[in-house]
Amino acid sequence: MRLKTMSVSGFRGFSTAQDLDLEGDAVIIVGANGSGKTSFFDALLWVLAGKVPRLGEDDKSVVSQYSPTGEARVELVLAKADGSLLTVVRRFDGAMNLSLEVDGEPALRGPSAEARLLEELWPDATLASDPWEALSRALTRGVYLQQDLLREFLEADGDQGRFAVIGEIVGAGRVAELQRQLESGKASWTRSTTALTTDVEPMRSRRAALAQRLSRLTEISAEGSTLPEEWRSWVRRADGYIPLPDVSVDALDAARILDAALKELEALQLQEGRRVATLGQLLRHLAAPPRQAQEVEPLRQALAQAEEAAAASRARMQTGQEHMASERSRLVALRERTEEIRALAQLALRHLDERCPICDQKYDIDETRHRLEQILAGEPGQEPAVPTVDLVALTAEVERDERFVAEIAAGLRGAEQGNASREEWEKTLQRLVADVGLEGEDDLLRRATELHESLSGRQETLAALRREGEAFSLRLARAGEIAQRSELERELATLDAELGQRETELAARAATGELAGEILNALRDASSEIVAGELHRIEPLLQRIYATVDPHPAFRAVRFLTRIVRGRGRLWTSIDDLTANVSVEEPTTVLSSSQLNVLAVSVFLALNLGVETLPLNVVALDDPLQSLDDVNLLGLVDLLRRIKGRRQIIVSTHDARFGGLLARKLRPISTGDRARLIQLEGWTREGPVVEQEEIPVDPKPLRLVA
Amino acid sequence: MDVSLTTSQLLAAVSELLESGGYNVVQPAEGWTSNSRLFEDPYGIVAVVAYENWTDLAETWPDAQGHLVELISAHLTRPEPKSWEGYLVLLTPGVAPSAARSQLAEIRYDTNRVRKLVATGDDLRTLDDVEQALLPLLPLEVESQLEPGPALLERLPGLLAARGIDAEAARTVVDAFIANESVLERLHEFRSRV
Questions:
Q1: Does A616 score more than 80 pLDDT?
Q2: Contact flag B75-A703 (C-beta cutoff 8 Å)
Q3: What percent of chain A has pLDDT over 70?
Q4: Are residue A278 and residue A303 in the same domain, yes or no?
């Protein structure tokens, strides 16, 4: 696919519309720096790839500051190999607009235009994660050698970066894309498998729980053959005691009904048991009747009389005792008086005189003495006798009377207590009779005995029914467990089958993931090998191109030097002096700037010519002649002439003299050839002044040959 | 054994290469020596002179250039583009001494009047060396330089198989990628089938 025309307006240096005729084997663009040469190439890149990487990501950057419409628009007409035309129009007015017209077909717009454009230009890009980035890389590395990136292949990116860049151009970008897709897919696959594994965990837990439940269920052989008959028999017998619904043993709620019946039987047994106990108590009560009632009033009267007599006895004894005490007091007082008088007599005897020492009266001293002496001579033991009372007899009398009182009181208490006990017995009897419901029975003892015997018999029957019922309940439970076990076993089998299926699927997914990993590892090596292989396939062409320009007198051979280290490719461009057997892997160390430029252009052209799938059959070089000395410049231009028939050459130069040289060298030599010269003469706010002309065909190419 | 080419061999090789490269042989006019040949193609005029040794070359190449310029002037006017397309190829089987290296470079880098291509015995040991010396004048045969190969993705399954990956699995992965399908899904399906 070649360029035919390009219309540019509002784009970078092209403020106003310019229609450029690009139809030719060679298009030479001449203009001073700043006149719009690079804008031309940027427009070419932008209309095709929608971006100019060196200008950054801001789409607005392509809009000319002096665009009269405020928008940028580039229309490019491409001629396909079959002669059909492809018209691409890209416009930016704040939003990117793309339209595409393929040889008269209805114009496509938007995504369909983008898809078709990719398909037409670089089908490989459709496999890339960012197709436009891939297309842009292919254009900038393989079709359009930008002025400021001239030596990028040699000096920038590092050995791995160079390998990756070249790999993209030779098509290994798709392999790398596959590698990325596989890596990404494998990561997603692993996440998904992990999630599925997590999803299976509850199933595994459920299986373990089921197995545990199964292990808890008794493993009993089925013993349900006689169960229905026994059930009916038991129901019949129990039905006499408690109401039972007519239900089969196979009924789902048989266990519940049995449980209710057992509870009712228990309640009945307890209730009747209490009655039996009461009856027993009643019978024991009747067997121990109280004594007959005793009259207590005579006893009370006798007691009162006896107490009265005892009181009289105690009063007499008290009187006697008091009398005895009074007499003793009187006797003591008498003894004290006698002693005092004798003391006075004795004292008076000592003080007897004519006259009374006290009252000084005259008295009969002798008489007095005699009298005093008589007083003193009186016998002290001759005291008046105390009258005696028979206290012993009185005491015995009191004791006898009190014993009598006690005896009567005891008899009275016994009688009273006996009477109270009898009342209590009667009350208990009435309560027990009422409890057992035998009020009004004439022959209470017989009725109570009969009832006791009857109820005791029922108690035994009820106990037996309960025992049998409980045993039956256990058998029912076991039968239920058998059914439950069976159900659990079925559930476990289903779960095992599902789990097995899931685990098989998980194992298969894991195996797929592993295989993807193996393929990924192999792909890393293979990807590098593919790039290395492509480079070695192109290498003779590189050598041929480099040798054609022949920029260095000694280092005349060039090779792509590739190494694959840990799955990653590395690339050097090695130059060799075959005569002296010297090899240099870093050309920058031995080549001049001019020679390096030649090497860079050689690598670019080798890739451009060597990779048949590049988007355009175009070699676009933005001012490649800068820094080239004359001989290399001539060599490069001669080389461009050699590839002119194979590629459409679009080359710019800032030097009018070189422009003339290019026009001469790339001139058409037959009427079928065409070459164009576009001169950008100065730049104003309206953009460059564009002069376009056809480079004339040499009317007589051969002059010396006869 | 280090055997150098003779001037006759050099001239014969040059003639064959240039003629096969689209050049026409031009009969030399008066003044051209027997060790020279003239060629023309639509773009330019080439004069090839084979000297016996370096000394001859170094001393007499300006004569050859003069003859070529005269020849061009005689047939083309100055404004004609072809008048700028003269090439002088100076060959010698003789080795240029080390001291002459700068002179050799001077001749090569002298682009006045015509472009000079110079090759001495160091560079002309084999017939292939002769072609190397004439490369700037020969067509660029791209096809002969490239060995065509299948599309990269087509080669991929084989490369993966060489690394121990099942060929069918490798093919499945590549096919899924080309069809923009889930590679892992397709790989899984493939595994399930086998």
A1: yes
A2: yes
A3: 95
A4: no
Q: What is the predicted pLDDT for the residue at A386?
A: 63
pLDDT of residue A153: 57
Residue A32 in domain:
no
pLDDT in tens, A284-327: 999 988 888 888 899 999 999 999 999 999 999 999 889 888 98
| pTM listed for this prediction | 0.65
| Phi, then psi, of A455 in degrees rounded to 5 | -70, -35
Tell me whether residues B151 and A188 touch, CB distance under 8 A.
no
Give the C-alpha separation, B108 to A631, whole Å. 8
| Residue A186 covered by a domain | no
Chain B hits for A638, Cβ within 8 Å: 136-137
- For the segment A319-336, the average pLDDT, to the nearest whole number, is 89
Chain A partners within 8 Å of B38 (Cβ) = 704
Helical H segments across A351-390, by residue range: 365-377
Q: What is the pLDDT of residues A20-56, one digit of tens each?
A: 999 999 999 999 988 899 999 999 999 999 988 888 8
Residues A239, A341: one domain?
A: no
Rounded to whole angstroms, the Cα distance separating A127 from A453 reads 103
CB contact under 8 A, A579 and B149: no
Contacts of B173 in chain A (CB under 8 A): 178, 182, 519
d(CA A404, CA A398): 10
Contacts with B139 from chain A: Cβ below 8 Å: 642
Domain that holds residue A339: 297-436
Let me know whether A320 and A415 are in one domain: yes
The rounded Cα A550 to chain-centroid distance in angstroms is: 70
Per the structure, the count of domains in chain A is 2
ipTM over 0.90: no
Query: How high is the pLDDT of residue A156?
Result: 59
The alpha carbon of residue A677 is apart from the nearest alpha carbon of chain B, in Å, by: 15
For residue A7, list its beta bridge partners: A19, A75
- Closest chain B residue to A662, measured at CA: B81
Q: Which of A208, A8, A665, A475 is nearest to B87 (CA)?
A: A665
**Cα(A611)–Cα(A533) distance, integer angstroms:** 13
The sign of the CA dihedral A297, A303, A309, A311 is: negative
Would the CB atoms of B42 and A698 count as touching at under 8 Å? Answer: yes
Q: Which CATH number fits domain B7-145: 1.25.40, 3.40.91, 3.90.1150, 3.30.70?
A: 3.40.91
Q: Measured between beta carbons, which residues in chain A are less than 8 angstroms from residue B138?
A: 548, 642
- For CATH 3.40.91, the residue range(s) in chain B are 7-145
Residue A378: band (very low, low, confident or very high) from pLDDT cuts 50, 70, 90: confident
Collapsed DSSP state (helix, strand, coil) of residue A144: strand
Residue of A nearest to B161 (CA): A522
Whether residue A353 sits in one domain with residue A250: no
Query: Rounded mean pLDDT of A576-584?
Result: 88
- CA-nearest residue to B83 within chain A is A664
Q: What is the pLDDT of residues A104-125, one digit of tens each?
A: 888 899 999 999 999 888 877 7
A324 in contact with chain B, both atoms CB, cutoff 8 A: no
Of B24, B146, B151, the CB nearest to A538: B146
Does the residue A428 lie in any domain? yes
DSSP A273-290: HHHHHHHHHHHHHHHSPP
**The residue type at A496:** D
What pLDDT score was predicted for residue A223?
Answer: 54
A278 and A346 inside one domain: no
**Are the Cβ atoms of A530 and B123 closer than 8 angstroms?**
no
Contact A541 B71 (CB under 8 A): no
Mark which residues 402-431 of A lie under 8 Å from B by CB: none
Q: Which residues of B touch A189 (CB under 8 A)?
A: 184
Within-domain flag for A286:
yes
Residue B99 burial (C-beta neighbours within 10 Å; 0-12, 13-18, 19+): exposed
Question: Cα(A376)–Cα(A379) distance, rounded to whole angstroms?
Answer: 9
Look at B184 and A512 and tell me if their CB atoms are within 8 Å.
Answer: yes
pLDDT along chain B (194 residues), means of 10: 78 94 87 88 94 94 93 89 93 92 90 91 88 91 63 83 91 89 92 84
Chain B neighbors of A538, CB-CB under 8 A = 146
Cβ–Cβ of B146/A541 closer than 8 Å? yes
